[in-house]
Write a structure and sequence with these properties.
The chain is an alpha+beta fold and 383 residues long. It is built from 13 helices and twelve strands. It folds into three domains: 123 residues, PAS domain (Beta-Lactamase, 2-Layer Sandwich), CATH 3.30.450; 101 residues, 2-Layer Sandwich (Beta-Lactamase), CATH 3.30.450.20; 106 residues, no CATH class. The longest helix is centred in the last third of the chain and has 49 residues. The N terminus is likely disordered.
């Protein structure tokens, strides 16, 4: 190579170094800075006039005193120092994370200096922290979160997914998401994957899934496309929530509402029937009263009184049954009075005696002498 060619090549290399987007500088084996490009000034804040001739240690945080010596030892041992991540100090005292590539500079086969290429990795570190936080959020989420390829192959699987479906990450990653879908809903999965490929998001889609043990679980799923740096859809994420309890609650509410509706319909029916039942009963009681005002034999009067008494008792019972709100509230009222038990039994016997005789039966009413005749209670309901 001629002297002119060497000078031209040296000038080209110098221009490349000066206009590089990475900070590039050289230093002696003792760490004294020899050269400093514009990107180094931008990264660290020192101009070439300020920093050249100073020790590189001004760039090293106080808590990393042995780092430079360790790097130089590796260079002397012939090791490459590529993409070594560390932290450096700017002129204003702020810290900057950097990735360093440090190379030997040799003359006549001897190591005489080193060159350093430093790249600011603040954005990458920030992204790593953000991704780590997101990963922690996903892992600690109560919702099952998984990702899959566009053909349905599972890529990631969080702890909540393991709890919901029963599969560990080791068991399920690499399998098709179809293992979670009931056989009668495979068409549903195909439709979802097709929509995802078009860029659609499926929000709060309620469906059924299959656990590892074969049991079914009702879920609400939100499925979203995942795009790569170029904007292309590369995968899909799924957030699934167990809604079994909610569905049970909804079923109970529906059952309650249906019961309420049935109760209302029954109350309406009873209210409608009350007139139909009370009217003939009142007629029986009224006509029996008129009958008692006429000349009757002793036996006829006894029977008429029995009819009226039984009719009044029946009307009282019907009124209580028809007043459904009282029954539901447990407020059925008893009308207590003193009565003769033997007489009450004889009244009932007289009431049904004719029906018994018509069927060829003989009805005998008997009350043990040990039972006191004089009692207190609701004789109408007792009859």
């Amino acid at each position: 190579m001629t002297t002119i060619e060497h000078v031209e090549k040296t000038g080209q290399l110098a221009a490349i170094v000066e206009y590089s987007g990475d900070a590039i500088f050289s230093k002696t084996l003792e760490g004294v800075i020899l050269t400093w490009n514009a990107a180094a000034e931008k990264l660290y804040g020192y101009s070439a006039e300020e920093i050249v001739g100073q020790s590189v240690s001004v760039l090293v945080p106080a808590d990393r005193p042995g780092e430079i010596d360790a790097i130089l030892a590796r260079i002397r041992a012939g090791e490459a120092v590529d993409h070594y991540e560390s932290v450096r100090v700017r002129k204003d005292g702020s810290l900057v994370p950097v990735s360093l590539t440090i190379s030997p500079i040799c003359a006549g086969g001897d190591l005489v200096a080193t060159s350093t290429i430093a790249r600011d990795i603040t954005a990458r570190k920030r992204n790593e922290v953000a991704l780590a936080r997101l990963a922690a959020i996903v892992e600690s989420s109560d919702d099952a979160i998984l990702s899959k390829t566009l053909d349905g192959t599972i890529l990631t699987w969080n702890a909540a997914a393991e709890r919901l479906y029963g599969y560990s990450a080791e068991e399920i990653i690499g399998q098709s998401v179809a293992v979670l879908v009931p056989a009668d809903r495979i068409g549903e999965l195909e439709n979802i994957l097709a929509r995802l490929a078009e860029g659609d998001t499926i929000d709060h889609f309620e469906s059924m899934r299959v656990r590892k043990d074969g049991s079914f679980v009702e879920v609400s799923v939100t499925i979203s496309p995942v795009r790569d740096a170029s904007g292309h859809i590369a995968a899909a994420s799924t957030i699934a929530r167990d809604i079994s309890e909610r569905k049970r609650t909804e079923a109970l509410v529906r059952a309650h509402d249906q019961a309420q509706e049935a109760s209302r319909a029954k109350s309406e029916f009873l209210a409608t029937m009350s007139h139909e039942i009370r009217t003939p009963l009142n007629g029986v009681i009224g006509l029996t009263g008129l009958l008692l005002d006429t000349e009757l034999t002793v036996t006829q009067r006894h029977y008429a009184k029995g009819v009226r008494s039984s009719g009044e008792a029946l009307l009282g019972i019907v009124n209580d049954i028809l007043d459904f709100s009282k029954i539901e509230a447990g407020k059925l009222q008893l009308e207590a009075c003193d009565f003769d038990l033997v007489q009450a039994i004889e009244d009932v016997a007289d009431l049904v005696a004719e029906s018994a005789r018509a069927k060829g039966l003989q009805l005998v009413a008997y009350c043990s002498p040990e039972v006191p005749n004089a009692l207190r209670g609701d004789v109408g309901r007792l009859r």
